[in-house]
Amino acid sequence: MAKKSILQQQRAAYQPKLPAVLWGPVKAVLGKPTESVADHEAIKRLFPVTYGLPELTFVKADEPVEQPAAINVGVILSGGQAPGGHNVISGLFDGLKALNPDNRLYGFLMGPGGLVNHNYVELTGDVIDEYRNTGGFDIIGSGRTKLETVEQFDKGLEILKKLGITALVIIGGDDSNTNAALLADYYERNNTGVRVIGCPKTIDGDLKNEQIETSFGFDTATKVYSEVIGNIERDCNSAKKYWHFIKLMGRSASHIALECALQTQPNYCIISEEVEAKQMSLEQVVDGIAEVVAERGNRGLNYGVVLIPEGLIEFVPEIKSLIKELNEFLGVEENKAAIADMTPEQQREFVLAGLTAAALATLHKLPDNVANQLLLDRDPHGNVQVSLIETEKLLSTMVGARLAKMKEHKKYKGSFAALHHFFGYEGRCADPSNFDADYCYALGYNAAQLINCGVTGYMSSVRGLTKPSSEWVAGGIPITMMMNVERRNAQDKPVIRKALVDLEGKPFKVFASKRDEWARETAYLYPGPIQYFGPSEVCDLPSRTLWYEQN
Fold first, then answer.
1. Can you say how many angstroms the Cα of residue 354 is from the centroid of all Cα atoms in its chain?
2. Of 143, 165, 294, 484, which sees the most CB atoms within 10 A?
């Protein structure tokens, strides 16, 4: 590892806090059998062995526990980075060594592809110590290979058997943990002797439920974004001449935008779920922003801040219908093959010829660059690459045009100049906040206990997160419990249901009760950078979202 900065040297000495129940031997208390959140029969057919498992909670063992035999464990970092991943691995390592000092941990390199391609490294104490409390996934790297086929499962099993690995921990988001569930069921029903445990990761905050109160990385990432938003607000309030349109990560849900709004109090924040619930057109979204700009401008306040969720474009009903139709058309194998050797112009004409009149009408409303991105750009899963669509520029351009018309009708007398920002990668590899450092370490340590009690197909769960860490509840939740069937790439697939912003939940209601005041006044908050040293009320607070949900 490269030479450490002064901060890294000081953070290396930080000892993450654990739930008191994990301070020593534990025993598992099993609850009632579970079922999936929807599509029960379909999920049961797809996961015949691991469906219906009970929830699991750890309590302190009431008598000494014999040291278990030594085992080898594998770990994979899957998907996009999130602050705290290194601490999950550190907690897993320490948890395994506490069970038996002879336990060994192997990391598969660059994500699930490392398992399939047999690329790995043993993670020793010296390696682990270099990465404690640091950001990033660079200890073993990450990747987006999807584990879906029997060939992949069997190829991975070859190296697991060679290394004597009897448990595999997959650290990832909803897609990655769906893959973990598929792998767990396959390995279990084929009596391979390999157990699979998942850990909940995503800065987007959309992997959560009653048992998974938040995904790790969300706390740190939103604090990083909020610091920069606060800096922009301070600059905005100083220069008093620009409207800043800021797009924030969050493809499928607006949790990041909502959390940052609660932390910084911008003049306007769009919540995609509300746009969809109210069946708002793109023009109505634009009108909402323009009205706030005009009202402030008419009072001489020609500046402000607008927060925009990355996935907004997919929540506008007319565009959502268009994208659904495009995904179906482009997901058909015959159509994929047809466009493979076409030029971009030929591809465009081919796709346009396959759309309905309603879809074409929506497409023609959009600027050419946005239309082309919807038509042609796809990620490895066949989805529109919404992060590449410059929604912030699309909205500011449309707002500017709307304001020009309002000025013609004497309804607006201010001036409008827009600046644009997209905050995404800046927050994914930050050194974890104290909350994420503790939470991630606990998730990893807890995963070691799940392995020790012999279960498979579970996700590590640590709950009660607004209480002192000593009072956190540790255990596991069956991954199938969170699953339903969704249409992906023109096929029905089992997936973990994404948690969207709850419009009846307290975090959104607090935001909704304040946004009119924030729109009219300049009520900015400047949260500043993450604090690692100092009083607990400055350094250890969880996200506003989590706080409002539980208090």
1. 33
2. 165
Alpha-carbon dihedral angle through residues 53, 59, 60, 61, given to the nearest 10 degrees? -40
Token pair 């990041």 is found at 256
CB atoms under 10 Å from CB of 508, counted, come to 21
Unique residue bearing structure tokens 């201010």? 414
Which are the contacts of 27, defined by CB distance < 8 A and separation ≥ 6? 58, 59, 60, 61, 62, 65, 453
The Cα–Cα gap between 106 and 168 comes to: 9
Q: 177-210 burial string, b = 16+ CB within 10 Å, else e?
A: bbbbbbbbbbbbeeebebbbbbbbbbbbbbbbee
Kindly give, in sequence order, each residue whose CB lies less than 8 Å from that of residue 251, ignoring residues fewer than 6 positions away: 204, 310, 311, 314, 386, 387
Please report, as a single letter, which amino acid is at residue 211.
Answer: Q
Judge whether 206 counts as a catalytic residue: no
pLDDT digits (tens, 9 = 90+) for 252-307: 899 999 999 999 999 999 999 999 999 999 999 999 999 999 999 999 999 999 99
Any bridge partners for residue 461, and if so which? 475
Between CA 56 and CA 450 the distance in angstroms is 9
How many whole angstroms separate alpha carbon 186 and alpha carbon 77? 20
The four Cα atoms 544, 546, 549, 551 give a dihedral, to 10 degrees, of -80
Residues shown for the chain: 551
| Distance of alpha carbon 167 from alpha carbon 214, whole angstroms | 24
- Could you report the per-residue pLDDT of 309-352, keeping only the tens digit for each? 999 998 999 998 998 888 888 878 888 888 888 888 888 899 89
The CA-based angle 380-160-488, given to 5 degrees, is 25
Task: Retrieve residue 465's tokens.
Answer: 């997160």
Instruction: Provide the whole-model pTM.
Output: 0.94
Selecting among 204, 219, 431, 438, the annotated active-site residue is: 204
Let me know: does 92 contact 446? Beta carbons within 8 Å: no
Which distant-in-sequence residues (6+ apart) come within 8 Å of 450 by Cβ? 56, 197, 458, 460, 476
Residue 115 CA to residue 448 CA, distance in Å, equals 20
- H or E element in which residue 247 lies: strand 243-248
CB 330 within 8 A of CB 351: yes
